[in-house]
From TrEMBL:
InterPro entries: AAA+_ATPase (IPR003593), ABC_transporter-like_ATP-bd (IPR003439), ABC_transporter-like_CS (IPR017871), ABC_transporter_ATP-bind (IPR050166), P-loop_NTPase (IPR027417)
Family: Belongs to the ABC transporter superfamily.
Name recorded for this polypeptide: ABC transporter ATP-binding protein
Keyword set, alphabetical order: ATP-binding, Nucleotide-binding, Transport
Pfam families: ABC_tran
GO molecular function terms attached to this record: ATP binding; ATP hydrolysis activity
Length: 283
């Protein structure tokens, strides 16, 4: 229940079998903004510590502005920390790398490229040459069920299809860790549920370690092994979700007592935060 002890997961020189896949230690991030000529410090992260095991799905939730996206961007290497560190497989993160893939809330596809060419783009930047590049892109497009939409441009795809391309693009570079920032937040309920089920299938097939930011408590309980609850830039608690794998669809899992227990526990933690009521759990 409590955050892991820092001493227990300080990355060793040689990674042990049960060593954490991702370790986040004493992570702090201050932004500086200037308002009316006055420089102001915004403490976005105030000492975040937790670790993620290989093949684990960890959801990160909390009120708007508590630092979830900042945390994910630092793990991805898009943002530098003010203090502390992130390690993936024992190696300190010092920028973006192909060991991590990021899926955004809006897929951010290149509008002039087809679905297939968008997936190929990431592979090209990784230095994968043809014909392997094409074959790999086709394989991952099929994994998300979009082989028939391969030649469509983003404006010819639905929101759910675009997110599928975004997921395929992130997976195609074969990252060890998949980072997802509210990937299904902008989708209708039906599409969201089918993509959640697909993500569970993909994780079961690939064994990927996944860190997913979500405001949706049902989604957090359905997908995650553990849920990290954040409050004002720090970890408030870490909830163990007692549901076994493989997991079924949301309607089926909701009927399980473990689901209800975890959902209530999360809501109890979050509902006391004043701004939380607007942002969390109301879906
Ligand atoms: N580039 C930036 N410059 C200045 N302040 C920033 C910047 N990015 C984030 N912040 C601030 O850092 C804090 C954490 O922001 P962050 O986006 O990580 O929160 P969040 O939990 O992901 O929020 P939401 O759920 O609304 O997306 C907020 O106060 C935000 O205003």
């Amino acid at each position: 229940m409590a955050a892991l002890q820092r001493d227990a997961w300080t990355a060793p020189a040689v990674l042990e079998a049960d060593a954490p896949h991702v370790s986040i230690t004493g992570l702090r991030k201050d932004f500086r903004i200037t308002i009316a000529g006055q420089s102001k410090r915004i403490p976005a992260l105030c000492g975040v510590d937790f670790a993620v095991r290989k093949g684990e799905i960890v959801a990160v939730t909390g009120a708007s502005g508590c630092g979830k996206t900042t945390l994910l961007r630092i793990i991805m290497g898009l943002e530098t920390a003010t203090a502390g560190e992130v390690r993936v497989s024992g190696k300190r993160v010092r920028g973006c790398g192909y060991d991590r893939g990021l899926v955004f809330q809006h897929a951010e596809l290149l509008p002039w490229r087809t679905a297939l060419a968008n997936i190929e783009f990431g592979l090209m930047t990784k230095g994968i040459r043809q014909p392997l590049r094409r074959r790999t892109a086709e394989r991952f497009l099929a994994m998300v069920g979009l082989q028939n939409a391969r030649d469509r441009k983003p404006h010819q795809l639905s929101g759910g299809m675009k997110q599928r391309v975004g997921i395929a693009r992130a997976l195609a570079i074969e990252p060890e860790v998949l980072l997802m920032d509210e990937p299904f937040g902008a989708l209708d309920a039906q599409t969201r549920e089918s993509l959640q089920a697909e993500l569970l299938d993909i994780q079961a097939a690939t064994g990927k370690t996944i860190i997913i930011v979500t405001h949706d408590l049902d989604e957090a309980v359905l997908l995650a092994d553990r849920v990290v609850v954040m409050e004002r830039g720090a970890v408030k608690d870490i909830i163990e979700i007692g549901l076994p794998r493989p997991r079924g669809p949301l309607a089926e899992m909701r009927a399980r007592p473990e689901f209800g227990r975890a959902r209530v526990h999360l809501w109890e933690l979050l509902r006391h935060l004043p701004e939380t009521k607007q942002e969390v759990g109301l879906r």
